[in-house]
Amino acid sequence: MRGALPSAAAVAIVGTRQPTSFGRRVARLAAEGAVAAGFAVISGLATGIDTVAHESALSAGGLTWAVLGSGVDLLTPSSNAALAEEIVAAGGGLVAEVPPGTPVSRRSLVARDRIQSGLSLAVVLCQCEVSSGAMHTARFAAVQGRLLAVARPRSPQHDVAACSGNLALSDPEGCDPALLSATGRTAELVRGRRPMADFVINDRDDLRELWRRLRPPSASSFSG
User: Fold this and answer.
1) 135 in a structural domain
2) Distance CA 126, CA 149 (A)
3) C-alpha dihedral (115, 43, 47, 148), degrees to nearest 10
């Protein structure tokens, strides 16, 4: 790791590397609202939703941690090197379960998704396709007993394909376990959840209700 150990009540904010304006807005509002409610923000330092989540948390004066699929000295993407330094300087940190010098791999990215949810009280999935790695984070949230909150697009102008993961996870009829790479007992868990999401976010009021539901310790404030 680099920086401080995660020490704050936190929420994970995750999603696609190629968000539309919808996904970026959800990530920004979620990160700003989380900080205002007394939470730190966990994400993965990837381009797209992760970057918006980290940047928004910092802009709001909060703490944020990045969970990496590489060694903490081999940042991916390298374009987020300055952001990583800001995270550490603000009192947050970079976390990885692989040694320094370990390059990123698909396997390690999936593995780190369970750490993102594990460090958090809830996972907020802002926007993703059904093929997105964020679907793994949604699966881990369910297995670990973390609250899974999913933003549901309401306007027809939003690209259905770009939000296909959101739609599957918020479908009141449930989600196909195969979309979550869920097998065995985990597949049974997924089949039993209708919708898969514990909490569906339609607007700002829903975000406010999410923070109330999580109830961070009143004496704790992780902003500033």
Assistant:
1) yes
2) 9
3) 90
| Within-domain flag for 69 | yes
Our measurement of the distance from residue 3's CA atom to the centroid of its chain's CA atoms, rounded to an integer in Å, reads: 20
CA distances from 19 to 26, 49, 137 (A): 10, 6, 17
Contact 133, 109 (CB under 8 A): yes
Relative orientation angle of helices 134-144 and 184-191, to the nearest 10 degrees: 90
Q: How far apart, in whole angstroms, are the C-alpha atoms of residue 2 and residue 71?
A: 10
Total residue length of the chain: 224
**Domains identified in the chain, total number:** 1
Mean pLDDT of 183-206: 96
Going by pLDDT thresholds of 50, 70 and 90, the confidence category of residue 189 is: very high
- CATH assignment of the domain containing 191: 3.40.50.450
